[in-house]
Amino acid sequence: MSFANLSGLARQRPLRVLLVNAGEADALTWAGLVQPLRMAAAMLGRDAFQLETMTPAQVVLAQPGWQIALLVADDADRTMAPELARAVIERIRSAEYWGGVGAGVLWLALAGVMAGVRVALPWALYGDTESITDRAILTQHLFELDGRHLSCCGGAASIDFALTLVEHLCGATVQASIKENLCIERVRSHDERQRIALQARFGALQPRLSEAVTLMETNIEEPLSTDDIANLVGLSRRQLERLFKQYLDSLPSRYYLELRLQRARQLLLETNHSIVQVGLMCGFSSGSHFSTAFGALFGNTPREERQRKLAN
After folding, report:
1. Which of 115, 181, 237, 277 could form a disulfide with 273 if both were Cys (CB 3.0 to 4.6 A apart)?
2. Dihedral class, residue 169 (left if φ above 0, else alpha if ψ from -120 to 50, else beta)
């Protein structure tokens, strides 16, 4: 589901957003999430936007009615008493959209409330995946919106997640002002991958899969064929396709194409290279193929993506 679906909440007044901090107040995950939202609340005023930050003990006694509620934690080893944890999760789930950030994603999955939901789990917690693979669908993305469920891998991605929420809840003008105040040039999109997630999850168990992805990442401008990649990692084409389908739910060719398009989008937003140059730098010899593939993945054309950068 697109984060644009959250824009419907912007018409609700006041918009109430709850952040439950189950970790340290000075942790990057918490600071990166709360600061942009606090700035948005200050700009819009309490009649339009109310940000409520609470401890787990406080939220149990709070008056519900939030549009968004998130459980935030930076340390998977922290625990809450079972009774308190159940009460906190019940409160969070009363919101229109709810979920977790950082280790909060793992806690919600372990509680059994994310079954069948795509979630962005922090790569550092991938060692715990055996206990939740039947309770959530793990992605390598920075953050996710699946139905009513929000998740973010935390750390530095918390800032991108918060600014994405600001854009859709408060508008691009408010987001641009906060970006300027925080000296942030680009907000990473939700579908960008955690760079270490694949290695952390599969590096030891599936070294050839990890090696194949590394080959893709280092050969963007002149893409290799699926057969070439299979030969280089010592597998047949069918074996490679089976690995990608089993562990990444994708074919090698599709995964490779998305890597190249992600890189193209980054270049469109961060550089002044022409659209034609960007296409060539990402392995597209045909401008029409580049535009069609880009639109199919992102929902807009490379030209529209570049215009969005210029508008900002």
Report:
1. 277
2. alpha
Tens of pLDDT along the chain (312 residues) come to 678 788 788 778 899 999 999 887 778 899 899 999 999 999 999 999 999 999 999 999 988 999 999 999 987 666 778 889 899 999 999 999 999 999 899 999 989 899 889 899 887 776 655 667 677 888 878 999 999 999 999 988 999 999 999 999 999 999 999 999 998 888 888 878 776 555 555 555 577 888 898 899 889 999 999 999 999 999 999 999 998 888 778 899 999 999 999 889 888 887 889 999 999 999 998 889 999 999 998 888 999 888 876 665
- E strand or H helix that includes residue 182: helix 172-182
- For residue 193, list its beta bridge partners: 141
Q: For the chain, which residues make up each domain, given as ranges?
A: 3-182, 204-312
Whether residue 53 contacts residue 19, with contact meaning beta carbons closer than 8 Å, is answered with yes
What are the backbone angles phi and psi of residue 263, rounded to the nearest 5°? -65, -40
CA dist 232 and 247 (Å) reads: 19
The Cα–Cα gap between 212 and 229 comes to 6
CATH number for the region 3-182 comes to 3.40.50.880
**Total-model pTM:** 0.70
**What's the CATH class of domain 204-312?**
mainly alpha
